[in-house]
Amino acid sequence: MPDLLASLIPGVSPGGFGVLLAATILGGLVRGFTGFGFAMVFMPLASIVLGPVAALALIWFIDLPFALPIAARNAKQAEWREVLPLLATATLALPLGLWLLLWLDRETMRWILAGLILTAVALMASGWRYHGRPGMPLSLGVGALSGLFSGMASIGGMPLAVFWLSAQRNDRHKTRANMQTFFGVSTVISGTILWYKGILTLAALMMALPLFAAYGLALWAGTHGFRLASETTFRRIAYAVIFASALVSLPLWDGFVGR
């Protein structure tokens, strides 16, 4: 089995694979529980092992078989008047995010990634809420940020989480339906662009194979946990896991742990 893993994930140590596996399980639990957050957990941790570009491709392959059927199940509950404008501007901004990902060096991207995630979690956990119905300019702006962050680090769900969770107009079921639908459609769109840019490779697909089962089980467990948890618990657990992942990934600790 170790030989098989070595062939699928060349150049990654057993400890590195352990980090990828833990990130996959934690990210799957959060994704199933909240409807978002896989990349917000997985990307900062996987970037330590693989770097941001390879981690971005790995996220796409791991989530693809699950994102599409989940989106199909949630599409009828989604508020399409909110989803479509976000999708439009996210698609336009995604290439700019990819350009930044490829242009910036690995360590700088790790600092930016962790900083963005920590800021978003702090904002959501602070109790700040947007009151009223968001207008079209705000929706388009959030969509553009989502596309930018999706291209940079596959964390396009982060602005949406702040937008929909903070607005407090929809209950958590409507929020999850919006997010799941958005992710399903945007996965197809982003995959096309990532393939064109040469980021989605056969090597990335092979690397994703050992992680599919762990992600699927964690996603299932998170979904069942969502059905049992209260609204307050739902938010607190998601924020805590995302915050911890971003904090651990900071390059600040590299000297202490020998990274």
Radius of gyration: 17 Å
Report the principal-axis shape: globular
Uncertain segments of ≥5 residues (pLDDT<50)? none
Number of domains: 1
How many strand elements? 0
Order of helices and strands: HHHHHHHHHHHHH
What topology emerges from the helices and strands here?
Layout: H1 2-8, H2 14-34, H3 38-50, H4 52-74, H5 80-103, H6 106-125, H7 136-153, H8 157-167, H9 172-196, H10 202-208, H11 212-228, H12 231-249, H13 254-257
Helix pairs in contact: 2-3, 2-11, 2-12, 3-4, 3-6, 3-12, 4-9, 4-10, 5-7, 5-9, 6-8, 6-12, 7-8, 8-9
Descriptive notes:
By secondary structure, the protein is mainly α. It has one domain (2-257). Helix content is 81%, strand content 0%. The chain contains 13 helices and no strands. The protein has helices at 2-8, 14-34, 38-50, 52-74, 80-103, 106-125, 136-153, 157-167, 172-196, 202-208, 212-228, 231-249, 254-257. α3 packs parallel to α12 (231-249). The protein is globular, with a radius of gyration of 17 Å. The model has no long low-confidence stretch (mean pLDDT 80).
At a glance:
It contains 13 helices and no strands. The protein is 81% helix and 0% strand. It has one domain (2-257).
